[in-house]
Specification:
With 119 residues, this protein is of the alpha/beta class. It contains four helices and four strands. The protein has a four-stranded parallel β-sheet, sandwiched between helices. The protein is globular, with a radius of gyration of 13 Å.
Length: 119
């Protein structure tokens, strides 16, 4: 897939499809992206926690789906790795990313999602 590079003023989203997010680290990440003149959005439920996950499977899948359906969101950053993304891979509608490819940036657990998107 060929993607357009991000430019100043673009909107990006931070999602938590895996393990819970530390609020202080999230804040630092948002500030780093804002220093690059990007508009950063996060779900109001991004700090959810359900055991060792960032909320229930449905919440995490819906959050990711919400942002990939938004044409104005030009990249999606995965807040952290850990565990849990494998549990929601089949709950996500990938068509919006196939129709309008955008970067999905993450590490660790998110490599399963990124590999899936690369095929």
């Amino acid at each position: 897939m060929k993607m357009k590079p991000l430019k100043e003023g673009d909107s990006v989203a931070i999602v938590a499809p895996s393990s819970p997010v530390d609020a202080n680290l999230l804040k630092a990440g948002i500030e780093a992206l804002e220093r690059e003149n990007l508009k950063v959005e996060v779900s109001p439920t991004i700090l959810s926690r359900e055991g060792y996950l960032a909320g229930g499977d449905e919440r995490r899948a819906q959050e990711f789906d919400h942002y990939i359906r938004r044409d104005d969101v030009r990249a999606i950053f995965i807040a952290r790795g850990g565990y849990g993304i494998l549990r929601i891979l089949d709950m996500i509608d990938y068509d919006p990313l196939l129709m309008d490819p955008r970067p999905v940036i993450g590490f660790s657990d998110s490599s399963a999602l990124i590999s899936f998107l690369s095929t």
